[in-house]
Specification:
With about 375 residues, this protein is an alpha/beta fold. Helices cover about 45% and strands about 10% of the residues. Strands 9-8-7-10-11 form a 5-stranded parallel sheet, sandwiched between helices. The longest helix is centred in the C-terminal third of the chain and has 24 residues, at about 345-365.
Length: about 375
């Protein structure tokens, strides 16, 4: 079976890159998988070396990009190489005719993970991008796996269009429980709740994917991976580093951090990201995928509130029964640092969720529509 996957893949973002890689790996059990090389103009901006524009936000981005010009050049090159090496891209798709041509080549189409159905993510004008709803597919089977709308709820003028688009799917699943309930009610049909694809694979499998050695001789370090660097994050980093008395490594692409660190890595590729997470002694993050890899790799962690969409993180933490790992004001830090996480329990719950998500894929890909 020839399978075509559409998702946000052309982006300078660790979560986006690794979720599509993980989806490809999961789907590859059922056939030959290609990622549709659709480079949404809005989500792909992060892959340009210098992002230009005339809006106030654009001016700030230009200044930021100038300050990190050389690390940015290196990291984008790593993301490009990663995509071309691991994702089996189709020829670049640029128009409706290109999309229609794909239907002659593939037996099954998949809308993948990430917030592809959230208009605030895929378009600067908050307009749905119907390519991510597989609107170009007429007769071939189509399913979704862990597609997301984040915290978005469709407007009155969008609901009829969304219902029509999703009604043509043979199987539907999303990665947040509340979104599953919302869409099930909206469509009057089952929309399954499944794991983010990065969680379908164990730590050992992730290390094998990139030939990473589980090095026991690495000196202990706290890894900080955060998109929102506020005073609370700074407080958490300072308190954790003080109590654990180990070095701090920051991984992001910002010019500066607002906290003391021993090393600031601004040009890590997706495979290096996996290595840094796998060898960390403690993780501080406000990222959904930072949370995913902390849980999956059994690394003690603390979550600070993200800039948007905390429902993704809360949904995952609730599923493995560790909702208490979030700090909203720093008052519970000592307990979070000292109390050991029951990773045995987490692994049992995660394995059960993994089995259920794999069963969804088995049903969706094996059964006739």
């Amino acid at each position: 079976m020839k399978i075509a996957l559409i998702t946000i893949h052309w982006a300078n973002n660790y979560g986006a890159s690794l979720q599509v890689f993980a989806t490809v790996k999961a789907l590859s059990k059922y056939g030959n998988v290609s990622v549709i090389d659709y480079r949404n103009s809005y989500t792909s901006k992060s892959m340009t070396r210098m992002r230009l524009g005339i809006k106030p936000r654009d001016i700030l981005r230009i200044g930021k990009d100038l300050l990190r010009l050389f690390p940015r050049y290196r990291v984008i090159k790593k993301f490009e190489n990663f995509n071309h090496t691991y994702l089996n891209l189709t020829p670049e798709v640029e128009n409706d005719e290109d999309f229609k041509e794909l239907t002659k080549e593939y037996d099954l189409f998949v809308s993948g993970s990430d917030q592809i159905w959230n208009p605030k993510i895929v378009n600067e004008y908050d307009v749905l991008d119907t390519h991510y709803f597989l609107d170009f597919v007429s007769d071939e089977k189509k399913i979704s796996y862990a597609s997301s709308i984040g915290t978005y709820r469709f407007k009155e003028n969008e609901i009829a269009q969304v219902v029509l688009l999703l009604d043509h799917y043979d199987f539907l699943s999303v990665r947040e429980k509340d979104s599953s309930q919302y869409l099930s009610n909206l469509l009057n049909k089952e929309v399954s709740h499944v794991l983010d694809p990065t969680l379908l694979h164990t730590k050992n499998e992730w290390l094998q994917f990139f030939d990473i050695q589980d090095n026991k001789d690495v000196k202990p370090y706290i890894l900080v991976y955060a998109s929102k660097k506020d005073s609370l994050l700074k407080q958490v980093v300072e308190e954790v580093s003080k109590q654990l008395d180990i070095s701090v490594i920051a991984i992001d692409q910002d010019p500066f951090t607002n906290f003391k660190n021993n090393r600031h890595i601004r040009d890590a590729g997706p495979d290096e990201f996996i290595q840094l997470f796998s060898q960390a002694s403690f993780i501080i993050t406000n990222s959904f995928h930072g949370t995913c890899f902390s849980i999956n790799f059994n690394i003690p962690f603390i979550i600070t509130p993200p800039p948007t969409s905390i429902n993704r993180i809360e949904s995952l933490l609730t599923a493995v029964d560790v909702q208490n790992r979030i700090t909203t004001d720093g008052t519970n830090l000592s307990g979070l640092i000292e109390n050991q996480i029951d990773f045995h329990m987490i692994n049992q719950r995660l394995q059960a969720l993994r089995m259920a998500s794999n069963q969804y894929l088995e049903n969706a890909l094996r059964k006739e529509p």
